[in-house]
Amino acid sequence: MPALEFTRRYAMAHRLLATKSAKCAIPHGHNEFVTVRLDPTSRFTFSDTNSVAPFEQVKKRWHDWIDNAVDHTLHLAETDPLIGYFREHEPKQLAQIMTFQGDPTTEALAACFFLKLSAFVADDGLPFTVSEIRIEETPTNTVIVTRESFDPASCGLRANAWPWRADMSINDF
After folding, report:
1. Residue 171 falls within a domain, yes or no?
2. 4-14 and 97-100: which strand pairing?
3. Residues 17-61: tens digit of each pLDDT
4. C-alpha to C-alpha distance for 13 and 122, rounded to whole angstroms
5. How far is the C-alpha of 7 from the C-alpha of 30, rounded, in Å?
6. Domain containing 62: what range?
7. What is this structure's pTM?
8. For the chain, N or C: smaller number of CB within 10 Å?
């Protein structure tokens, strides 16, 4: 069966504190593209439908999550003092903050996306595995996480953190 690949665009902002980059310590935004590749769990054979699952069914939940939970979010480390500000002054905005163990780098984002999409695929019983997540942060910077380069079992993310769950979550508030 041929692999499926689809792309979605979203806007986000983040700031990186641990990397000690003065430029990236100021909240700033990107218009990013995420491209996912799903590999089928069986080989292609001609049939009446000629597909394992309707393309729309495969991408619907992922696109809903990107469009309704990820688009226009602020990405922060769980220890970022801005979270305290939002808790005290703008608690309703906490739903728009995506949190990370450590700096919210594009590498961390790609790994979290890999886990979240894997959870969706498993929860929906789709006959695919996540093969690749590609995030284009800028036209000149892209991060790629593949099944071969990323091991969810040993990635160090705490159990039951939001990326593991097949729900619309983007943080653990």
Report:
1. no
2. unpaired
3. 998 888 999 999 999 999 999 999 988 778 777 777 767 888 999
4. 29
5. 16
6. 4-164
7. 0.94
8. C
The answer to whether residue 169 is domain-embedded is no
**CA gap 21, 77 in Å, rounded:** 15
Domain contains 48: yes
CATH code: domain of residue 153: 3.30.479.10
Residue 112 lies in a domain: yes
Mean pLDDT for the chain overall = 94
Structural domains counted in the chain: 1
Three-class SS string for the chain?
CCCEEEEEEEEEEECCCCCCCHHHHCCEEEEEEEEEEEEECCCCCCCCCCCCCCHHHHHHHHHHHHHHHHCCEEEEECCCHHHHHHHHHCHHHHHHEEEECCCCCHHHHHHHHHHHHHHHHHHCCCCEEEEEEEEEEECCEEEEEECCCCCHHHCCCCCCCHHHCCCCCCCCC
**158 contacts 99 by C-beta, under 8 angstroms:** no
What are the b/e assignments for 101-118, b being 16+ CB within 10 Å?
bebbbbebbbbbbbbbbb
Among the listed residues 17, 23, 12, the one whose alpha carbon sits nearest the alpha carbon of residue 109: 12
Q: What is the pLDDT of residue 51?
A: 73
> Smallest Cα–Cα separation from 15: which of 70, 88, 68, 73?
73
